[in-house]
Design goal:
The structure is a homodimer.
Chain A: E1 3-8, H1 16-31, E2 35-40, H2 46-57, H3 63-87, E3 92-95, H4 97-100, E4 102-104, E5 113-116, H5 119-126, E6 130-134, E7 137-139, E8 145-147, H6 152-164, E9 168-173, E10 194-196, H7 197-205, H8 213-222, E11 226-230, E12 238-241, E13 254-270, H9 275-285, E14 290-297, E15 302-310, H10 314-328, E16 332-345, H11 355-365, E17 370-376, E18 379-385, H12 389-399
Parallel strand pairs in A: 1-2, 1-9, 2-6, 3-6, 9-11, 10-12
Antiparallel strand pairs in A: 4-5, 7-8, 11-12, 13-15, 13-16, 14-15, 16-18, 17-18
Chain lengths: 409, 409
């Protein structure tokens, strides 16, 4: 007898037919002897419909009232799914975030879970109920309804799994697992059977949008085994867990990339203490997020400085940098918004030498010029001209043998 | 400084425009120095949309989950109205039934309010907030969401007004008050400025559907002054209050009627103890509600028995009565579903003699034959052929001088 927390997103419960399909699936899991807690999102389209109503009232809805409004989306789903289960002769009971109770801080629209009081949940599980919990929402100390922000249903599921000490947290989505890279770019991309939390975090932050980053952090912190599966087809999906538990041990787990970066460079900056701050401070002050940063020693006691920002912020950032260049007496501020970032991710890097050089050789063999390099413990990222994106990803996918189940050391 | 509870029904908050109009009205009331608690229903159409979803899932939704589902309707409205008030620079805060907390029994879909814990409400009022409360819903001891049944928002408003000891409870609706009778039947019908709780209860139970009966009972029990007004036009509406407080003292306040009755008669029943029960018991057992009952002494130690039921139950009731007639050895069971009931209502009856004879004379002068008569302390009802409905109501309206503001004694 396992205790399993499952989460179904908006697309999986987007219509009455799909809610019925989820109910059928749950009956099946139940009949195989599992205790079940199910977290659901709002039916797809519902959150946008509600936001539309709010926007008709005011361009700046109060955070508290927006949460009261949006939380109705999941409340509708939990009621309908519980009805569908009852209709199938299965005992089920719905819970809003406040009923569970999922206690959060009072940061409306982006609240963080503080504590889950699972007493009532345990009582109902012991009495044989399937519990259907509204994702994405909670309640603060004062009893105000809060929401965790978009995608927060994943976090609700993981937090519940942690609080209930569940055997597994399963996230049902519209893809059947985590892939070595985007199959639209590399047709040979392969579903991973297992991946570590850290790898998943790097993949997610690098643009693989299977799971919310925060839910992976949560799972990692509480060591909740997390499985990504498809709502629409059978399969084992991908299990995200601690390093020791990942059976498949490739050096590199996957290749992530992001197209929405732009690069900015300032050259000939007098090399003095505090110069990095004087360059990047004005950018941050303008609420522009900086991703990669590289500093090189230039000629004549000057330094060259390169960093990347989101492509949407490119024009704004370049303007600021040009002003900074004047102030600092730098040689030139320039930029390039036709670049992409490609990253290889894998915990195997820690114990294997020569991964970086293998990466650079694979790219060189295709004639791809590397514009920037940045590394972390389990990740190497390069910036290249955007025309090389597909070629680069395919070359790396093949160089690290990701298309085959056989593990390349 | 008055504390006023206002209630706006589904039509009054049916669109974003109307919600904005309600917000404007509230700002106006606020600027005139009033403390305000506003109870709102779901936007018109929303409850039916949600019921439609439930019905797609199952023809028999569980009561608990239906309440979870339907309560989202008002929750959307409280959020939107609170946003609209904030947009106008007015401090406002929304409350679900559970947040207030409106404690009910656990009879899902038709719960009754047990207690209102108004502590938090008082705190927020003192801090200058307009409170926007979801009507129609509450929470039971165990924390389950309950609903009071259709129209329950009126009851929420009155119960809150009672708990808060409000100066007045105002019910905004699509009519501008309580009329002497239905203006579609009598164009001269006049809006009443005041009416007593008892009169309103008789009017409501006789088919004038301005207010939910339960909310009037509640108002009467706790002596909450209750005012019916239009959401869409200016005006004083009609104040429903204790007899001592009603300024306008006509003998008759109004004329109510109902078209959906049918009459059943059993004649030549042996006149023995218990015969009434043996006739009406089987009708009640079939869940048919009986309205008027008249028993007359017939010839030869027999008795004749006549009663009315809802017209929808006529065929079923007649069949049962025919069987009873056989069992009891009665002469005949017969019926008539082409009848209507007309009633005059007024607390003035208590102190004025000759009201009944005035009523009967007015009908006789129009050649209207009375089929049944039934009286209560403040009401006289007659059953007549349905073709006489309009003629009868107009004759009575005129006979009792209801079209004029001058009070006829």
């Amino acid at each position: 007898m396992s205790l399993i927390v499952q989460k179904y997103g908006g697309t999986s419960v987007g219509t009455v037919e799909r809610i019925n399909a989820v109910a059928d699936k749950l009956v099946d899991w139940r009949q195989r002897g599992n205790d079940l807690v199910v977290v659901v999102s709002a039916m797809s389209g519902e959150t946008n419909r509600l936001l539309g109503l709010a926007n008709e009232i005011t361009p700046n809805p109060t955070g508290r009232e927006l949460d009261v409004l949006l939380s109705t989306g999941e409340q509708v789903t939990i009621a309908l799914l519980s009805m569908a289960l009852a209709q199938r002769g299965v005992k089920a009971r719905s819970y809003t975030g406040s009923q569970v109770r999922i206690l959060t801080d009072n940061a409306h629209n982006k609240a963080r879970i503080r504590e889950i009081d699972a007493a009532r949940v345990h009582t109902d599980l012991a009495a044989g109920y399937i519990l259907v919990v509204a994702g994405f929402q909670g309640v603060d100390e004062a009893g105000n309804i809060t929401t965790l922000g978009r995608g927060g249903s994943d976090t609700t599921a993981v937090a519940l799994a942690a609080a209930l000490n569940a055997d597994e947290c399963q996230i049902y989505t519209d893809v059947n697992g985590v892939y070595t890279t985007d199959p639209r770019v590399v047709p040979e991309a392969r579903r991973l059977t297992g991946i570590t939390y850290e790898e998943m975090l790097e993949m997610a932050s690098l643009g693989s949008k299977v799971l919310q980053i925060r839910s992976v952090e949560f799972a990692s912190k509480y060591e909740v085994p997390l499985r990504v599966l498809s709502s629409f087809e059978e399969g084992e999906g991908t299990l995200i867990s601690k390093e020791e538990q990942v059976m498949e041990r490739a050096v590199i787990s996957g290749i992530a990339f992001t197209r929405d970066e732009a690069q900015l460079t300032i050259t000939g900056v007098p090399d003095e203490p505090g110069v990095a701050y004087r360059i990047l401070g004005p950018i941050s002050d303008a609420n522009i997020e900086i991703d990669m940063i590289v500093q090189n020693i230039g000629a004549d006691g000057t330094t060259d400085f390169t960093f990347t920002v989101n492509r949407n912020d490119y024009a704004k950032a370049l303007k600021i940098l040009e002003e900074t260049a004047q102030t600092l007496g730098a040689r030139e501020a320039s930029g390039n918004d036709k670049i992409v970032k490609i990253s290889i991710v894998g915990v195997g890097m820690r114990s294997h030498a020569g991964i970086a050089s293998k990466m650079f050789r694979a790219l060189a063999e295709e004639g791809i010029n590397i514009l920037m390099i940045s590394t972390s413990e389990i990740k190497i990222s390069v910036v290249v001209d955007e025309k090389y994106l597909e070629l680069g990803v395919r070359a790396l996918h093949s160089a690290f043998g990701l298309e085959s189940e056989t593990i390349s050391e």
